[in-house]
Amino acid sequence: MDNISSRYEIPRTAEFLRGRAYTRVALQFPDELLKDAAPVARALRRELGGGGTKLFVMADTAYNSCCVDEVGASAIDAQCVVHYGHSCMSPTSNLPAFFVFGKAPLDVGACCRSLLDCSRESNKPILVLCGLEYAHALDDLKGAAAELCKSDSCNHEIQYADVMCSEMSPSSSPTAEEQCRQSNESTHNDDLANFVNSCCNVEGSMRKYNLGGLTWSISIDDKIDDYLLYWIGQDNSAFANVALTFNKCDIVRYDTVENQLSRDVSHLMKILRRRYYLVEKAKDANIIGILVGTLGVAGYLDIIEQMKNVIKAAGKKSYTLVMGRPNSAKLANFPECEVFVYVSCAQTALLDSKEFLAPVITPFEAVLAFSRGREWTGEYLLDFKDLITSEKPEVASRSTEARFSFIKGGYVEDDFPQVLVSWFMYVFLLSSKSYLYFDHLSTENEEHPETSLALAELTEKALSVRNQNNDAVLYQGGAKSAIDYLKARSYRGLTGEYEVAPDTVLIGRTGRAAVYSDEKTKQ
Predict the structure, then answer these.
(1) Which pTM value belongs to this model?
(2) Sheet strands (E) in 62-117
(3) Rounded Cα–Cα distance for residues 225 and 246 (Å)
(4) Phi-psi region of 77 (alpha: psi -120 to 50; beta: other; left: phi over 0)
(5) Which residues pair with 214 in a beta bridge?
(6) pLDDT in tens, 104-122
């Protein structure tokens, strides 16, 4: 029980709950820590002294376990969420949160020796970053490294990142991260209010970085690319977030399980190259699905609206889809979508779409793909808060010159499929009508036994063109909307309600699946 109390910080958690007089608290556990849920709840209830506080254990989160599950917490009318385990530290929208990262074991001596060996081999200043579960050992690591540096006359600069906060207040704006600060930190200046969306803020003579719950500062005269990043922890989503965001830095990773240094990050650079390929593929898409991967991260509604505007300005059609955790079976129900934009937290944004019928990209990649004139400079962002802007994108002009498609291997017009189909139909109908019309004028009083044959040939041509158009819509990205795709399909479901595909979207049933609005009866 003492181990549970120390590892899950029971006294500190109870102090936080008592200080704010919360009476309904949700305890959120990831799958790997669920075995400790009952002992933790009992220990916390004992520490609270039975003061009327009700504790609810949450598991199997609606979206990602690294995010605060506000959807599940709202179902039990919780006033606060205590989040256990690894966290992406994404700001919440409605509920306050308290984070217990845990205390993963770390061999401080071995890690310190590896750090100093790395500093001797490199002529760059070192920035030490870590998974949040190892933050408890940073002070011991600093002390041990300082002692060894004195004895070895080590003059290399070693800087350590700090944990940004362990408490978070809700905010509906994308600046919630700015409200999450340690009590001993100073507040930001008002003239920086418009710059808080970036992971790097300028404060006086320092450049301050916030990423994945970590914060650090460097001189405004220095560049982050000149630092060697020393990561302590596993090769997980948090490490990928750091490596891809600062992909121009030299990065090494200390494996806490094997107690050895790993310099190979080539697999992450391969991911970066694949993401560039997906951006090029998304440029040729006409129908885009926006996947909602969170209902709690502050600013998610803003970025969804921004994605709609960017897609619309590019002359494309978008559909917003809410389906919980996406998988290949769910996304296969939307074959008309040629690419999906996944709105999620930074550490789950890279969804591996190799098994999916259509690629899944991030909001940052969507901005690159659907904004004419934007080029990838190597910069990469995973946190969608860095993209939120109040400016609406300009609608692309139809006279815009053709762009080069690396996927199709030639110059293409973004609205070419629709123009192509319409032009074929227009020319065919026009030629058919003119043929019959001029034939009628030239031989007004003559009989034509071949008229039926001519009509049969025209009908055959019409069916052939229609089949070609349907193939272009279904298999060559010719559809401009879901209705176009539906009209081109020969099979439209089990119900034969529509002889002709509907031209408008029908409003479905509203309410919860248990009791829809039209099923409610008077009590």
Answers:
(1) 0.74
(2) 80-84, 97-100
(3) 7
(4) left
(5) 163, 211
(6) 999 999 999 999 888 888 8
